[in-house]
Design goal:
Helices cover 52% and strands 14% of the residues. It is α+β, with helices and mostly antiparallel strands. The strands form 5 sheets. A 6-stranded mixed β-barrel has the order 4-5-10-7-9-8. Strands 14-22-13-23 form a 4-stranded antiparallel sheet. Helix 21 packs antiparallel against helix 29.
């Protein structure tokens, strides 16, 4: 009999066996198909989400032949893609400081070309909630040249100057719909929204589109007639151009336009780029031709993920093949009695792996493709742009399918070897035999585990992510080898436990060949999820640490432009208190200045304006050593924690946290009272409140204090146009230096955004300084929504405007969603692996369960036994997986730490803080909730009663 004939018979037997045991076969197919499905969907999504150069060009110029724009530099030279350009010849030095007149673009277009203009203008519009600031773009959206760049989703394009279309995100945020009317507040002109559109390259854009001449021209005409109407401030115009013939806009047309000062992005030039010798810019600036080729290296992390995915499938499907081979041992024994050798017995079991692996691979690829098509809109919304097309590479999909097939074969390899070693007599009598556990394997596993951890840590400290990935895989393989011993030890833990958990632990220890692979599969899934979740949590903590907020968290600030606007603050306060989630009292604030107000008299002609300076002493505790001479030498000696402590000191914090949230004055001095301490600073100290009440300033940054006092230098300069104050202070500018006793807050309050010192009103008046109410601070329970913002803006505008609301927004929703997805993925695999093991245990121990029922065990014992069997596998795998997942996460953070330290030693004021933060919520769900759910589900779906069968033998 030939080899092919033998394999054909083996495959036929495997196919019949698979059809006979449909439940087990479906389980194996599912375990192989699910990872193949995931990899297929990920591959198609990755290939489709990355727009090709041609698709990016369409997103930029639509279906036009070219996009023309004014460079504002005079004659230029450009690269074919239009992204890089420069003045022609030596014009750089000649054009500096000169204003170049705008181009008459219609004279630049090639003869016979057709063009439509595009120009945007910021504006405020009335919405269903109130008032919203947005961008209005004048573009003939119905023109065919706009297709590919703007697509109609609902309704119709504008057919006149009284109509607009809006993006769906804008309609949602404004509470409007197709058919709604919308008014541009400055011009007062009303428009009808005739359609909803989307920008395929930016699905989250909030914009309005109108035909050219519909918004800017009437607005400008109204401002020319009425000086009280603010003039529009449109952006530069650009033109979508369609060539006269089929050739489009060629390179000679582009160079001709460059002579006039226009930059051109041409489709024809993109598809047929000129030779380097035909590009004038490369002759004068050859450095523009040096590109950055993409790296062809395969990511070590990607290889690690694929390797661990294959390992996980083998671990999950392997026990199923083992149980299948055990249940078919009589059939395999009969094969031996008919003259079949061990190779043919192994071929039958391996044939099962090929049959089920092939079915799983094909089903996984097909399901992955189908799910990607079905969920494509959701994925596109998540990515923020439409895919150009679904990019399916047959070679990659074939490789994925082959991997699934090979995985099925590998999963059946160990059971096939075991089945081939069994004697015919053992197979026919059903005896399992007794085999002592290997002592070499756990010792080898422990050594490999230690080696892998050492390699991963060394890779982290040396900055090699490849060593980290390799070491993590080696460490996990070592831990896999130790699992049989760990499972064996579980049996000893059940001596004092009740019947069901004791039997579950002993069953797991006695059947290590079934339990260990399932525990290992759970460990592998949890390890990957914990590793990614830990790295992400650590990165989020790092970005939160580096983030410099404009305002204290949980606050909003009302700010007025000038003295006239400040008179409208009462109306604005009422609007905020009525429409926003204000949780406490308010704190009114004022700004302070010396001499003439620089916000009004900012020009130097006529004497200028006054200044205030809060003097920072020099020396230790006052000067930041990381921003002085010798800083690099100091940084080279610091550890990451020492550098972090120094960066968080008040002396250094003041160097990089200087946000002017309340005024343009860099001193960050605010006039306020004790309510500001509670509402904004979050300083709950009666002594500080009493100090302000007594006229003593509160200093939030102790680096400015010396012996409990600060130095305030003022230059009282008055502008000639400031008639009222000039009469009171004639003559030359008066300079004053005041030493003020202050209340010094603790070092932690130096990080308060926008405020360095709170000055009482009466102290400012005593020093001869001027003050003006500038706003109000509120504590709120959540960041204002679009609707709340728009309602407040409408109330302010109705009162006359000039007041705006500030809030600090830092979104972490996406990170939270990713962590949730990782937790769900690990949870599903954990429940699945535990359920598989429980099902295999029931199938493998029918005789034991029959005996259990025969001796009078209550029906609930069977349910409890299944539940605890599932719980043991899930909990053990989760705990081991959590420990295994921390190895690569910690090592990769060490790589980040090394890179941060190198950057810090070059620039000492750069943060080197690289925390390692455990995702306790994810770990808690996996370690507690998921095993409990798995146990409860196993108990719930287990039949209490068993039909007794006659025992054989």
């Amino acid at each position: 009999m030939s080899v092919f004939t033998g394999w054909r018979a083996a495959l036929r037997i495997a196919r019949r066996d698979a059809l006979r045991a449909k439940g087990r076969s479906a389980l194996v197919v599912a375990m192989i198909a699910l990872p193949v499905l995931g990899v297929t969907a990920a591959d198609i999504t990755y290939r489709s989400s990355g727009l090709s150069a041609a698709e990016q060009l369409t997103a930029r110029i639509g279906s036009a032949d070219a996009l023309f724009s004014d460079a504002g530099m005079g004659p230029i030279q450009q690269m074919p893609d239009g992204d890089m350009y420069s003045n022609e010849g030596d014009a750089d030095s000649e054009m500096i400081g000169e204003e170049v007149p705008p181009i008459d673009m219609r004279a630049v277009f090639p003869k016979g070309a057709r063009a439509i203009s595009e120009q945007s203008v910021p504006a405020s519009v009335r919405t269903a909630y109130g008032l919203a600031s947005t961008e209005i773009v004048e573009l003939k959206t119905s023109d065919r040249m706009a297709r590919g760049r703007i697509e109609l989703v609902e309704g119709a394009f504008p057919r006149g100057t009284g109509e607009m279309v809006a993006t769906k995100p804008f309609l949602k945020s404004a509470g409007l719909h197709v058919g709604s009317d919308i008014t541009v507040t400055v011009s007062g002109k009303k428009y009808t929204i005739t359609g909803a559109i989307e920008l395929p390259a930016d699905l989250k854009a909030k914009q309005l589109y109108a035909d050219p001449g519909a918004v800017i021209a009437p607005w400008k005409a109204m401002s020319d007639r009425d000086k009280k109407v603010p003039a529009p401030h449109p952006g530069p115009s650009q033109w979508l151009v369609e060539g006269a013939g089929e050739a489009g806009i060629v390179w000679t047309d582009v160079m001709a336009a460059n002579k006039a000062g226009a930059v051109v992005v041409s489709r024809q030039v993109f598809e047929n780029p000129p030779a380097a010798s035909e590009i004038p810019l490369l002759r004068t600036n050859p450095q523009y031709g040096s590109g950055n080729p993409d790296s062809a290296e395969t990511s070590a992390a990607l290889i690690t993920v694929v390797a661990m995915a294959i390992l996980e499938i083998v671990l999950l499907a392997g026990p199923a093949f083992a149980v299948g081979a055990r249940r078919a041992r009589r059939q395999l024994g009969l094969l031996g009695t008919c003259g079949g050798d061990r190779g043919q017995v192994r071929a039958v079991v391996l044939g099962g792996g090929l049959v089920l692996g092939g079915v799983g691979a094909v089903a996984g690829v097909a399901a992955g493709l189908l799910l990607t098509v079905v969920f494509r809109p959701t994925i596109e919304n998540w990515a923020g742009h439409r895919f150009g097309s679904l990019s399916m590479r047959p070679t990659e999909l074939l490789i994925i399918a082959v991997l699934g097939l090979v995985t099925g074969l590998l999963a059946a390899l160990a059971p096939a070897i075991v089945a081939g070693r069994q004697s015919v007599l053992e197979s026919l009598t059903g005896r399992r035999g007794v085999r002592r556990g290997s002592r070499v394997l756990p010792i080898t596993g422990a050594c490999v585990l230690a080696l892998g951890v050492a390699v991963a840590v060394y890779g982290g400290t040396s900055g090699s992510s490849t060593l980290v990935s390799g070491g993590s895989v080696v460490a996990e393989l070592g831990l896999l080898a130790c699992i049989p011993v760990i499972v064996g030890l579980l049996g000893r833990l059940g001596r004092r436990l009740p019947l069901s958990p004791r039997m579950a632990l002993r069953d797991a220890a006695r059947n290590r060949g079934r339990t260990a692979p399932a525990v290992a599969a759970v460990m592998a899934a949890v390890a990957g999820s914990v590793a990614i979740a830990t790295y992400m949590s650590s990165s989020v903590a790092e970005s939160d640490y580096d983030y410099i907020p404009m305002l204290t968290e949980g606050t909003v600030v009302l700010s007025a432009w000038d003295e006239e606007s400040a008179e409208r603050l009462p109306v604005a306060r009422a609007a905020v208190e009525q429409n926003m989630a204000v949780t406490g009292g308010r704190a009114d604030i004022s700004r302070v200045w010396a001499g003439s107000d620089c916000n009004v008299y900012y020009d130097d002609d006529g004497g200028g304006c006054g200044t205030i300076e809060l003097v920072k002493p020099s020396g230790k505790g006052h000067t930041c050593p990381l921003n002085t001479k010798g800083a690099k030498e100091l940084a080279a000696r610091l550890s990451a924690e020492e550098h972090r402590t120094m960066m968080r000191s008040p002396a250094c914090m003041d160097e990089y946290i200087s946000t002017g949230s309340f005024s343009a004055d860099s001193n960050n001095i605010v006039v306020g009272d004790a309510s500001l301490l509670a509402t904004y600073v979050k300083l709950d100290d009666p002594a500080a409140a009493a100090a302000l009440k007594a006229g003593t300033p509160v200093l939030l940054n102790e680096a400015y204090a010396e012996n409990g006092e600060v130095t305030l230098k003022s230059v009282h300069t008055y502008h000639d146009k400031d008639k009222e104050n000039r009469k009171l202070h004639p003559g030359p500018a008066r300079k004053s230096t005041d030493r003020l006793k202050v209340y010094v807050a603790k070092a932690e309050y130096a990080a308060t955004p926008g405020i360095r010192m709170i000055l009482p009103q009466r102290t400012a008046e005593r020093l001869g300084l001027h003050t003006q109410p500038t706003g109000t601070v509120y504590a709120v329970s959540h960041t204002p929504t679009d609707a709340e913002d728009q309602r407040v803006s409408a109330a302010i505008d109705q009162a006359g405007g000039g007041v705006w609301v500030q809030s600090d927004q830092q979104s972490r929703d996406r990170d939270s969603i990713i962590l949730l997805i990782l937790t769900l993925f690990a949870g599903v695999v954990t429940v699945g692996a535990a359920a598989i093991t429980t099902g295999l245990a029931k199938a493998d121990a029918e005789a034991d369960l029959t005996t259990l029922s025969a001796v009078g065990a209550p029906p609930r014992v069977r349910r409890a036994l299944s539940g605890f069997q599932c719980l043991v596998v899930a909990l053990t795998g989760v705990l081991l997986g959590t420990a295994a997942g921390l190895v690569p996460a910690v090592a990769l953070r060490l790589v980040d730490l090394r890179q941060a330290m190198e950057q810090m030693r070059i620039q000492p004021m750069e943060s080197a803080y690289t925390p390692i933060v455990l995702p306790w919520a994810t770990i808690g769900l996996l370690a507690v909730a998921v095993p409990l759910i798995a146990g409860v589900l196993a108990a719930a779906f287990t039949r209490s009663r068993l039909t007794l069968a006659r025992r054989a033998g």
